[in-house]
Design goal:
The chain is mostly beta strands. The protein has no helices and nine strands. The relative contact order is 0.28. The protein starts with a strand and ends in a 12-residue tail after the last strand. Helix content is about 0%, strand content about 40%. The strands form two sheets. Strands 4, 5, 7, 8 and 9 form a five-stranded antiparallel β-sheet that branches. Strands 2-1-3-6 form a four-stranded mixed β-sheet, with no helix packed on it.
């Protein structure tokens, strides 16, 4: 599943209506569309209290599973000799998944 963002100059805006569920791993991706000034290596910052930086490949990356919690997480990006953006917030639905304790 992809959550999508548009980055126009320094403003990031989420553009999808997906509803991520907590505790997912290797499933949620972030796809970005950038205005022309964003050239060079781009890095996404995912944060739910601890920041995780992920270098984008073709303006897309896997969202770190550590941030996909019921509290939700924020997303920002930076690039080059440093263009930065504001922060977008992603709400996350609590999961029904639980570990089996033997």
């Amino acid at each position: 599943m992809d959550i999508t963002f548009n980055v126009e100059k320094q403003l990031i805006c989420r553009t999808d209506n997906e509803k991520p569920v907590a505790k997912s791993e290797n499933f949620l991706f972030a796809q970005f569309t950038f205005s022309g000034e964003w050239k060079g290596t781009k890095t996404a910052i995912f944060n739910n209290g601890t920041p995780y930086n992920v270098i984008l490949q073709d303006d897309r990356c896997l969202v770190p599973w550590e941030v996909i919690t019921a509290n939700g997480f924020s997303v920002s990006v930076y690039c080059g000799n440093r263009i930065t953006a504001n922060t977008a917030y992603v709400m996350v639905i609590p999961s029904g998944y639980s570990e089996i304790v033997a």
